[in-house]
Amino acid sequence: MDKLSPQLRHNNMAAIHGKETKPEMIVRRWLWGHGYRYRLNHPRLPGKPDIVMRKYRTCIFVNGCFWHGHEGCQYYTVPKTNTEFWVNKVQRNKERDAKVQHELASMGWRSITIWECELKPISRDKTLASLDFTLNRIFLQDHSIRRYVKPEEEPMMVAEDMADYNNINDV
C-alpha cells in the first residue's frame, strides 16, 4: 500500500525530469574537467542523446536504473501499485532505447550507456576511468594512420615486344 495520497504521489512523479539529472551532471562535470567538449541533447539526432561528442562521433546516454529497467540492479524494482502500467512503461522505454541506438549506429555514431548505479560513489571512479579509456580508444581508432595498399596487378607494358615488331615489318 502506498503511504502517499494519489495527488502527492502524482506531484512527486511529475517533479522528476529527464534533463540535468544528478547522474548526468556528474558525468558532464567529469568530462569537462578532463578536457572533453560536448553538446547537450542534440535535437537532430534520434533520441536527443544526453551528451553528444562530435569529435568522437559518440553519444552518451546517462540512464536511470528505474526508468530504463536496468536488469539485475538493486535500484530497479517494480512498484507494488499500478504494476501493469509501470511494467509496460519501462518496457516501452527499453524498446525505444534499442531503436534509438540502432538508428544512431546506422548513421555512423557510437553509443555509450552509463547507468545511474555505476555513478554511485563506490564505483564512480572505475566507471569514469572506463569512459576515459573508451573515448581515447575511439579517438585513436578513428585517427590512426591507414596505409593505402595497392592491389596486386600484372605490370602493363609500355612498349611492344621487339619480336612482335619484327613480325609486323616482315609482312
Task: Characterise this structure.
With about 170 residues, this protein is an alpha+beta fold. It contains 5 helices and 4 strands, in the order ααβββαβαα. The model has no long low-confidence stretch (mean pLDDT about 85). The longest helix is centred in the middle third of the chain and has 24 residues, at about 85-105. Strands 1-2-3-4 form a 4-stranded mixed β-sheet, with helices on both faces. Helix content is about 45%, strand content about 10%. It has a domain at about 15-125: VSR Endonuclease (Endonuclease, Chain A).
Question: What is the name of the CATH class of the domain at 16-124?
Answer: Alpha Beta
- The fold-level CATH name of the domain at 16-124 is Endonuclease, Chain A
Principal-axis shape: elongated
CATH architecture term of the domain at 16-124 = 3-Layer(aba) Sandwich
Number of helices: 5
Strand count, sense and barrel status of the largest sheet are: 4 strands, mixed
Q: Could you tell me the mean pLDDT?
A: 85
Q: Compute the gyration radius: what is it?
A: 28 Å
Q: Provide the CATH superfamily of the domain at 16-124.
A: VSR Endonuclease
Enumerate the strands of the largest sheet in spatial order, edge to edge or round the barrel: 1-2-3-4
Structural class: alpha+beta
Give the distance, in angstroms, between the N- and C-terminal Cα atoms.
109 Å
What is the share of helical residues?
40-55%
Count of extended strands: 4
Strand content: 5-15%
Please trace the helix and strand order, writing H or E for each element.
HHEEEHEHH
The low-confidence parts are none
